[in-house]
Amino acid sequence: MKLILLGAPGAGKGTQAAVISRELGIPAISTGNILRAAIQEGTPTGMKAKTYMDEGHLVPDEVIIGIIKERLAEPDCAKGFILDGVPRTIAQAEALEAAGIKFDHVVSLEIADATIMERMSGRRVCSKCGASYHIVAVPPKAVCGGELVTRKDDKPETVKNRLAVYHRETEPLKDFYRERGVLYPVEDMGPVEATSKAILAILRQDG
Ligand code: AP5
After folding, report:
1. Ligand 1 geometric centre to CA of 84 (Å)
2. What average pLDDT does the structure give for the chain?
3. Which residues pair with 183 in a beta bridge?
4. How many angstroms does the Cα of residue 101 sit away from the middle of ligand 1?
5. What 3-state DSSP class applies to 68?
6. Residue 13 annotated as catalytic
7. Which residues contact ligand 1 via a Cβ below 6 A?
8. Per-residue pLDDT at 207 exceeds 80
9. Nearest residue by C-alpha to atom 30 in ligand 1
10. What is the separation of C-alpha 61 from the centre of its chain, rounded to a whole number of angstroms?
């Protein structure tokens, strides 16, 4: 099973990727989490990505393509994987295709921008494992003992910018994957469990 979770910033990709990963026993790979870990470790890739991320811009394609190819070559990806937050541009999608990766499903989480603005203000993430919570809708659990923090790019002005970047750069991927017959839009259902159920029904129905 090779799956992409597509959606605006804050659409719930990370939240749903964690559920599907548990249910299907395949890894969830978030380029955002990989980049944040690189920033924390102070690696050259992290240093390069930081300014783009803090301002809500996309990190250059060549950096992302390098990161994702390296990650997908690891043994835990042999039976399948869930991509969260990548590809995000047509160039990234073409690079994955050129590497011979064929996706079974591209689930596009559909949600209004206004709902996203509300959700982002209540998001808290674990500084250690990257798990995402919401102070009201998804109460934080101390799973790995990491500190809960507000992400730097969750400031309202930066979220607005990230949404604009999504509509301009990432939304065209829906047509890209629709043309390949693998796009499955899923409307946001409110509770996390209802959206997970809708996604899993699509994945199981299609085998
Ligand atoms: P990244 O970390 O990928 O962020 P994002 O795509 O902007 O998405 P988020 O992590 O903000 O949101 P999400 O959809 O995972 O939602 P979540 O589940 O947390 O990227 C960050 C930056 O890195 C980018 O801006 C870019 O600079 C760079 N980058 C990363 N990948 C890149 C790439 N491929 N190319 C170029 N640059 C790249 O949920 C959001 C909130 O809502 C949480 O509080 C959650 O608890 C809550 N919530 C979730 N579901 C529900 C629900 N059903 N009901 C109520 N609350 C809910």
Report:
1. 8
2. 94
3. 106
4. 23
5. helix
6. yes
7. 7, 9-15, 30-32, 35, 52-53, 56-59, 64, 85-86, 88, 92, 119, 122-123, 132-134, 137-138, 153, 162, 190-192, 195
8. no
9. 32
10. 16
**pLDDT at residue 182 greater than cutoff 60:** yes
Those residues with Cβ within 8 angstroms of residue 59's Cβ, 6 or more apart along the chain or in another chain: 31, 35, 48, 49, 52, 53
| Residue 114 host element (H or E) | helix 113-121
Whether 150 has a pLDDT exceeding 60, the answer reads: yes
158's tokens:
């930066």
Please return the burial class of 137, using the count of CB atoms within 10 Å of its CB with bins 0-12, 13-18 and 19+: middle
C-alpha of residue 188 to centroid of ligand 1, in Å: 14
Predicted pLDDT of residue 154:
93
User: DSSP letter at 185?
Assistant: E
Residue 132 alpha carbon, nearest atom of ligand 1 = 19
How would residue 130 be classed by pLDDT, with cut points 50, 70 and 90? confident
Catalytic residue from among 36, 71, 88, 124: 88
Catalytic residue list contains 88: yes
At residue 111, the pLDDT reads 96
- For residue 25, give the amino acid letter: G
Total-model pTM:
0.94
Q: Where are the beta strands (DSSP E) in 8-159?
A: 28-30, 81-84, 105-110, 123-126, 132-134, 148-149
Cα 13 to averaged position of ligand 1 atoms, centre (Å): 6
CB neighbour list of residue 127: distance below 8 Å, 6 or more residues apart: 40, 146, 147, 148, 149
